[in-house]
Amino acid sequence: MGALTAGLAMVLLAVASPTPAPTPKVEVGKPVPWIAALDLEGNAHSLGSMLARKGVRGAVVPFWAIWCRACKDELRQLSAGRDRLKSVGVEVLLVDVADPPDEVAKMVAELGLGGFTLIRDATGGVVDSVGLSRDEKGQVSLPFTLVVSARGEVKLVLREGGDGLVDRVLAVLEKEPVRGGK
After folding, report:
1. Which helix (H) or strand (E) holds 149?
2. Distances from the Cα of 147 to the Cαs of 40, 107, 133, in angstroms?
3. Whole-angstrom Cα distance, residue 49 to residue 71?
4. How far apart are CA 77 and CA 49, in angstroms?
5. pTM of the model
6. How far is CA 171 from CA 40, 142, 180, in A?
7. 3-class SS at 182?
8. 120: burial class by Cβ within 10 Å (0-12, 13-18, 19+)?
């Protein structure tokens, strides 16, 4: 009977213990996972194809949702810094985390994001590929922004939002070689 009680206690302890947090799939210095999805018009886009373009140094990839205030601030900064980013070969790939398409289109217009490539992670596959954590209701932990070199190497992972996004991106990517010359 003692062995049965001890075994039952071990099972109960295992069930009651919190599940360890998943290991992040994105690490500075490592290759970026595959990021691809459809835009609002149904056209496919991938980070890999953006990075392969001639004249590209890298990309900034903000994951965002319409409910995320810090994300909206980051998106405003990217919109305001559009010319600075473009002038040094930095692409922008916006990843919406499954908001309704009409609300995404409204926010894109409101924040002046036209001209940036935007994909909608309707299934959560992109979020899962980078290992973003979710709360108990399944909501993704945002803000989350990746800075990636043209070689596909993660150079910076930003999780806190805040001012100076464009300056931080440029400080990292201006040192990177330009793909195929300019």
Report:
1. strand 144-149
2. 23, 23, 18
3. 24
4. 24
5. 0.84
6. 31, 23, 21
7. coil
8. buried
Architecture of domain 26-173: 3-Layer(aba) Sandwich (3.40)
How many angstroms separate the CA atoms of 112 and 75, rounded? Answer: 9
Instruction: Report phi then psi at 163, rounded to 5.
Output: -75, 165
The full set of domain ranges for the chain reads 26-173
Cα(11)–Cα(16) distance, rounded to whole angstroms? 9
What are the pLDDT digits (tens) for 94-142?
A: 999 989 999 999 999 999 999 999 999 999 999 999 998 888 888 889 9
Other CB atoms within a 10 A radius of the CB of residue 97 amount to 23
Query: How much is the average pLDDT of 61-82?
Result: 96
Which residue reads 């069930």 in tokens? 15
The structure tokens listed for 58 are: 């890298």
